[in-house]
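We were asked to recover a plausible sequence for a given structure. The inputs and outputs are reproduced exactly as logged, with field labels preserved.

PROBLEM: sequence recovery
POSITIONS: 248
GIVEN STRUCTURE:
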């Protein structure tokens, strides 16, 4: 198996934790991100890439193949959020979120799929969300894209099965990252509440375990899903959400 793993959005948050975990497993990790980190950690190479643009993904993956070889692992992680009532939701924000979260997952998977088929091995892990299974208000594009990722994953799981490719999805609840902290800040301003009050009354309300998930926990699930223990697990979507959305 090639020891090349691509993680999108590994400059920050969950992606950075996943990259760190994969380095521990001796992977050469390639980070596809819009923003390059000030310094790459040992074992991680960052390539500037906008996953929503096919030519950007094609160019970045050509560089990976040229410098390191084909990828065995792809983690479709990068993302962003935008909230607005449906009637005011700007079309350009809809296009942006669908472009990054859903089209980006498709484009990166498309780029590596042929090589994975030829190698007879591949592991694709998508970071969706509990919002890939249920809805909250004002998140039309995010919820639609995250639901779409689960559908796309199932198609790729079916197409990849006979070639040794598995495709699985992780659905976190609230994970302590910059993306999540931005949302806490805007709720604090909107509702004139303290950070603690916002966490309790908004973010952790639907969770049974009243604490935020650590990015390392998501990385640990990635580690399991790429291991031999998970070789017959495909097309599944696992929550890490303190019980929010349990049973879905
Ligand atoms: N943090 C949470 O509570 C939470 C919960 C559920 C799901 N998620 C999902 O986990 C993933 C990571 O989120 P995070 O909290 O670590 O966010 P983050 O903001 O900390 O990191 C996201 C990264 O994605 C990169 N990115 C954004 N647009 C990109 C593009 N077009 N091309 C390439 N890179 C791009 C950003 O530059 C950034 O480095 C996202 O898909 C998010 O939806 C997060």
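RECOVERED SEQUENCE:
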């Amino acid at each position: 198996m090639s020891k090349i793993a691509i993680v999108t959005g590994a400059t920050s948050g969950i992606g950075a934790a996943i990259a760190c975990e994969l380095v521990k497993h001796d992977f050469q990790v390639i980070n596809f991100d819009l923003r390059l980190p000030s310094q790459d950690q040992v074992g991680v190479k960052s390539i500037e890439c906008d996953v929503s643009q096919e030519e950007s993904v094609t160019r970045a993956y050509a560089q990976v193949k040229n410098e390191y070889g084909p990828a065995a692992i792809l983690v479709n992680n990068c993302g962003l959020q935008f909230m607005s009532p449906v009637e005011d939701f700007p079309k350009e924000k809809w296009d942006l979120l669908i472009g990054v979260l859903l089209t980006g997952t498709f484009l990166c998977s498309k780029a590596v799929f042929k090589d994975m088929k030829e190698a007879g091995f591949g592991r694709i892990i998508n970071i969706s969300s509990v919002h890939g299974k249920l809805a909250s208000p004002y998140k039309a594009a995010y919820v639609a894209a995250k639901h779409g990722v689960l559908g796309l994953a199932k198609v790729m799981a079916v197409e990849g099965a006979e070639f040794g490719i598995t495709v699985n999805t992780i659905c976190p609840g609230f994970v302590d990252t910059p993306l999540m902290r931005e949302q806490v800040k805007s709720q604090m301003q909107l509702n004139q509440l303290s950070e603690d009050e916002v966490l309790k009354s908004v973010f952790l309300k639907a969770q049974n375990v009243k604490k935020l998930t650590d990015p390392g926990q998501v990385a640990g699930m990635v580690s399991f899903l790429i291991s031999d223990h998970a070789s017959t697990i495909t097309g599944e979507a696992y929550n890490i959400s303190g019980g929010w959305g349990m049973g879905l």
